[in-house]
Amino acid sequence: MNLIILTESDKIDEDAYRLSDYRAEHIRSVLRVEEGDTVEVGLLNGPQGKARVQFVSGDAVELRCERLEEVPAPQPTINLICALPRPQTLKKILITSAMMGVRSLHLIRANRVEKSYFQSPLTEAERQRPYLIEGLSQGKLTRLPEVCVHDRFRPFFEDGHGPLDEKADRSTLRLLCTMDEAPSLDTVFEPSAAEVTIAIGPEGGWVPFEIEFMQSVGFRPFSLGRWILRVEHAVTAALSQIELLRMMHK
Amino acid sequence: MNLIILTESDKIDEDAYRLSDYRAEHIRSVLRVEEGDTVEVGLLNGPQGKARVQFVSGDAVELRCERLEEVPAPQPTINLICALPRPQTLKKILITSAMMGVRSLHLIRANRVEKSYFQSPLTEAERQRPYLIEGLSQGKLTRLPEVCVHDRFRPFFEDGHGPLDEKADRSTLRLLCTMDEAPSLDTVFEPSAAEVTIAIGPEGGWVPFEIEFMQSVGFRPFSLGRWILRVEHAVTAALSQIELLRMMHK
Predict the structure, then answer these.
(1) Which residues in chain A have their CB less than 8 angstroms from residue B184's CB?
(2) How many CB atoms lie within 10 A of CB A243?
């Protein structure tokens, strides 16, 4: 936990927050702070900085925020489209997305997605939230990624959801991660793009129709490399390669 | 399981193997093959290809290998040096290393490594093996990475262990992943290097002495990006960025 994320429901007063859950336990047992020490905090979807420990007891910690500052959102804005994975994998993707500053995560149906995954409690925002907060806490970020579940494949693209909404006067570089002989990311990446949307397939990959369809709506296929990766590794690998290209063109 | 890994102890006859563990269960319940079908197999540290199902029963599957071929080792050869992580993280790193074709993994002491981690049963080769095989199975590779545990920091480098053994007439590009303002990987990478050794720090990072010492023995610092990653994500990110640079310079 590199940043203690504070929410409205922790607030007890102007700038004062009371914690009595795993965060209080972390402050007591891992950080081992005493009254008067400071810890790093961030307000959910808000600024981050230091908070001073006002009070520590066996079951609660009270903090008062000092010098909080807005942290600029990472550029380019990254949206992820993932074929809805099994719940255990989804947990990892929620953590990774928040940790690596993804702006929105769209979980869609695909041919090789098991229908039962759409019945998982983890498709509910309330159940996703602890994993997102864990990721923010690790990555020292505060902005909660937007997570949407779309239970059909074509309509997601055709109806222009989320990052694909062209009426919203936005344009996003559309990238499609495939496992075949596609070119490497540098050949399809545009360093000047302010927004990038990457689609990552299910275990077993996209079926040919899905790849053709996404290409017909402007997604450019690329290969992460010679590996056969699990979905959670493909997410980290794709974001890491984009970050390298961003740094190279700065 | 994209490849069923077969070992000498499964062998019952020339080219014939009998499985009665989770692999047999996978062949029966996930692949749902019948006698006469083929499955993808690899011999541990050997060739890979197809095997024909000879016999399926409630508790065993017998396979006969056909047309196995050697798969060339990935280039460049990659060695990883990781500060020994907590056991749960080590499991993930073992899987990832095998999945992504790492040649050797050196687990070393560092200032921010808890001493108790060296007492973990997972420092024993026998306990590591299932995770390595899981990774090979996922990545469709057969070559078991070499894993070594070194319980001291400086001697590991000074005594020239593993990839650092210069008497063995080898040279390896030495890279050091840091979390500070180091340059991006492209500025320190050498596309012509046949062997690359990457050092990845503990949770909390290397201490300044460690960074200075590694630099003094030729490790070039680089930054994976703006993130604060967990060790397992840093491993995937570093390997992915190397793979992108390799593809770009092919």
Answers:
(1) 244, 247-248
(2) 24
Cα–Cα distance, A221 to A199 (Å, whole number)? 9
Mind telling me how many Å the CA of A111 is from chain B's nearest CA?
17
**ipTM score for this prediction:** 0.94
Backbone phi, then psi, for B59, in 5-degree steps? -125, 0
The C-alpha of B246 sits at a distance from chain A's nearest C-alpha, in angstroms, of 9
* Residues in Cβ contact with B66 at an 8 Å cutoff, skipping those fewer than 6 apart: B15, B38, B49, B50, B51, B52
Q: What are the residues of chain A with a beta carbon less than 8 Å away from any beta carbon of chain B?
A: 2, 74, 96, 99-101, 138-140, 184-186, 223-230, 233, 236-241, 243-248
Which candidate, A146, A142, A157, A75, places its Cα nearest to that of A109?
Answer: A157
Pairwise CA distance, residues B180 & A83, whole Å = 34
Query: B interface toward A at CB cutoff 8 Å?
Result: 2, 74, 96, 99-101, 138-140, 184-186, 223-230, 233, 236-241, 243-248
pLDDT digits (tens, 9 = 90+) for A138-179: 999 999 999 999 999 999 999 888 888 877 666 899 999 987
Q: How far apart are CA A233 and CA B240, in angstroms?
A: 10
Domains of chain A and CATH, by start: 4-69 (2.40.240.20), 77-248 (3.40.1280.10)
* Cα A234 versus chain centre, distance: 14
The residues, ordered by sequence, that sit 6+ positions from B232 with a Cβ below 8 Å of its Cβ are B85, B89, B92, B93, B96
A104 CB neighbour count, 10 Å cutoff:
18
E strand map for chain B: 4-6, 11-13, 16-19, 38-43, 48-56, 61-69, 77-83, 104-108, 146-150, 173-178, 195-200, 220-223
pTM summary value: 0.95
Closest CA to A2 of A26, A21, A20: A26
Q: Which residue among A96, A228, A245 sits closest to B233, beta carbon to beta carbon? A: A96
Tell me the C-alpha distance between B185 and B202, whole Å. 19
User: Residue A96, Cβ neighbours under 10 Å: how many?
Assistant: 25
- pLDDT tens-place string over residues A98-141: 999 999 999 999 999 999 999 999 999 999 999 999 999 999 99
- For residue B197, count CB atoms less than 10 angstroms from its CB and return exposed for 0-12, middle for 13-18, buried for 19 or more: buried
Instruction: With beta carbons under 8 A apart, name residues in chain A contacting B139.
Output: 227-229
